[in-house]
Amino acid sequence: MEDAFRSGFSSAFFQVLFEKIGKFAAKEINGVGLQVLRDGPLLKFWSLRVLDLRKAGLQKISVPVDHLKHLRYINLSENKIQRLPEGICKLLALQTLKLINCDELRELPSGLKNLINLRHLDLNTWGKLEVMPSKLGRLTNLLTLYVFKIGKDEGCGIQELGNMRFLTGSLCIMNLSFVANATQAKEANLKEKPCLDKLELESRDDITNSSDQEEVLAGLEPDMNLKELVITNYSGNRFPGWLSLLQLKLTNIQLQGCSSCSILPALGQLPLLKTLYIEGMSSLVQVN
């Protein structure tokens, strides 16, 4: 397998095999060290459904992929790529794009909003990616979106989350300091995302406008079915009333770096709460 891969898939056997099964997999050749994916027999695999290149040592993708119209699944996780080719945004049948542990990734293609059939966009919260591409709110069929990094530019705001009503599992919203007011926060429609189990709300630690932050957090009330909540670097003086609503089904709450907050709400009355973790709340003087 490795010899065929190194020689650019010159073996007719492998070409026929991949065309028949519709799959090009590199997960078993971690040591090859591709670095750059170039033109080659990949261009002939018109019927590909799955392109799995995780841990392939990729640093750059220079081969055009927009001809692979049948692709449903792309996994580029654990590579050192900095950018994705815009051609990916022409794969309108794509349902899954996995970019886990791509720590060097700096930006996503601007045309990502065109992948209207995308169900899963898997990203990490860490790494060098600073902001999501604009108009991502068009991806109304998304089920998985682990992280959404808010930007200052038009089309990069928290409002883009508004129509993503089918999100499931975990969601981390970062750069909340770029949300101007409660109106914008409410447009994220977190109350209408009943399938979310975990919500992380993270502000920048260099922004300290407490009054605005209090309004914003108040507007980010989640669905009552939420199980886990993490709030990081919140600069408000107090938490919103929804955090102690008896209807909340929270079992785990983490409050980290909320150094300006002096009053903790009555979290003890939450009927299902099992774990409360508090760190970096140096101004705390009252626990209700």
Automatic annotation (TrEMBL):
Occurrences of domain R13L1/DRL21-like LRR repeat region (ranges): 158-281
One annotated GO biological process: defense response
What keywords tag this UniProt record?
A: Leucine-rich repeat, Repeat
The yes or no answer to whether the keyword ATP-binding is present is: no
What's the superkingdom here? Eukaryota
Q: Which PANTHER family match?
A: DISEASE RESISTANCE RPP13-LIKE PROTEIN 1, LEUCINE-RICH REPEAT-CONTAINING PROTEIN 57
Show the SMART domains listed in the entry.
LRR_TYP (SM00369)
- Does this UniProt record's set of keywords contain Secreted? no
Name of the protein in its database record: R13L1/DRL21-like LRR repeat region domain-containing protein
